[in-house]
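Render this sequence as a predicted structure.
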Amino acid sequence: MTCLIVDDNPLARLALRNMASEIEGLQLAGECESAIDAFNFLQKTPADLLLLDVELPGMSGLELLKSLDHQPLAILITSKTDYAVEGFDLQVVDYIVKPVALPRLLKAVQRAMERFEAHYPPGAEELGPSYLFARVNNQLLRIDFDDVLFVQALGDYVVFQTADKKHPVHLTMKAVEERLPPSRFLRVHRSYIVALNKIANLEQNSLLVGKHIVPVSENYKGELMQKLNVI
């Protein structure tokens, strides 16, 4: 389970980082010193759990949770008890009053892991988000994985091809490949990543994906055959 630390106090972030590193099964996704930094971070790199200070400059931790369309699990960490009721109205996992002690954090993280596993049991086909946000024409556009037929590299851009639209994004294929779930997408060519469930047929070195022909490189063909469950 990945976690994001959000606290405007550098010493508090350091303490949380050190404690989080000792908890098995918890991986640090990053650190932010404000709610708006966390909001922007989460648009690009989803996290399963927030270790979230409530009193932050500009926008509070509670306001951050309300602003997110897809809210991660959250453990509120603050110096006051005034926010407990509102926090639990937002279905936070736990509420810790500073200073944070490792045994107390362990207890809260264990609750978070139990809730996380209830939603994503071991062996589930898909973990993590079913979408990403990409910057298209100076705005962040949500791209749902279910809509994507394939991704094509074109110069300094990649194009997310859906059934009826193309979304050009200034990214590298490597960056896109790292963000797409490997259970659903596979690179089949230097310039193409395809959605496995959108493949209609394979003929020699080309795929029919929707109404599009996608080339297949010999370097990727072996893994493709395994993924397609060919008999």
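Summary. Helices lie at 10-21, 35-44, 61-67, 84-89, 102-119, 173-179, 218-227. The radius of gyration is 21 Å.
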